[in-house]
Design brief:
Layout lengths: L4 E5 L4 H12 L3 E6 L10 E4 L5 H8 L6 E4 L5 H11 L6 E4 L26 H20 L3 E6 L1 E3 L10 H8 L4 E4 L8 E3 H11 L9 E4 L7 H11 L7 E4 L1 H7 L4 H8 L8 H6 L9 H14 L8 H16 L1
Parallel strand pairs: 1-2, 1-4, 2-3, 4-5, 5-6, 6-10, 7-9, 8-11
Helix pairs in contact: 1-6, 2-3, 7-11, 8-9
Length: 328
Amino acid sequence: MSTLDVLFLGGTGTISTACVRSALAAGHRVTVLNRGSSEAPSGAESVVGDVRDADSLRSALDGRSYDVVADFLSFVPDHVRTVLDVVEGSTGQYINISSASAYEKPPRYLPVTESTPLRNPYWQYSRDKIACEDLLVAAHRERGLPMTIVRPSHTYDDRRLPTIGKWNDIARMRAGRPVVIHGDGTSLWTVTHADDFAVAFTGLLANPQAIGEAFTITGDHAPTWNQIYRWLAEAAGVSDPEFVHIASETIARFAPDLGPGLLGDKSHSMVFDTSRVRRLVPGFATTITYDEGARRVINHLDAHPELQRVDPDLDARFDAMISHVRRD
């Protein structure tokens, strides 16, 4: 592949940081645009601008054109419209980062494929992503917008825990306190390391077969939630953790902010068929499974105590949930 000029809107988040590194490793020229609050990965050009403001975005880009614009920052249709107002016509490919949570919940069949209907009555975030996709599909059909849609599921790096309590769960395990797992813990959950995701993503850059298409990008590693929590306990040095299984609906009553993500995503078994992206990027594979991922995350967080944030309010809600189910 020839050297590409790639613009990342974002570029410092969990997924986008890995994608920037991968694009640089492939020899591409990479520009990262954000508000300047986070440092772009080494080797990337950094541009400061407000992606929510068309004038600011236009001024920051200063008339430059790019082979690819990768948008990690658009979450509602108005965000997409603002970006397209500036970059459409000056890029050969616009890649929008959607979400696999947009697939119907509960899924009627597994594995989920790109033809699975998009419908999520539980989570506004997912409905907004669907609306963004609808806008892009219409633009491709009506005026030939060279767009590609990417749907990641649970993608993590060494800084991000997958559990509902985040660091609260690790702190509770280490203190010998019970930890809440939603449902019975046996549903399957696909977890993908950002470095693996980035391989598939980089293979789609300026790929003519990707234009007008949507791709699920996940690994093929789908352990149960019980296994995920056990691997985290082992990595945290806890040999006999106490797990309390609580229905997702009950958790949502005690902690309403957790409800949409649970009922609209995590409480369902989510296994994906990624043969479509593998046809275009045959080198894409799962190289980091979560037994290793858990060790990396805990090691990183242990080395950075400032990231070990316990939410006292959520901790109290976990205690209340556990007391409630034990009374019953």
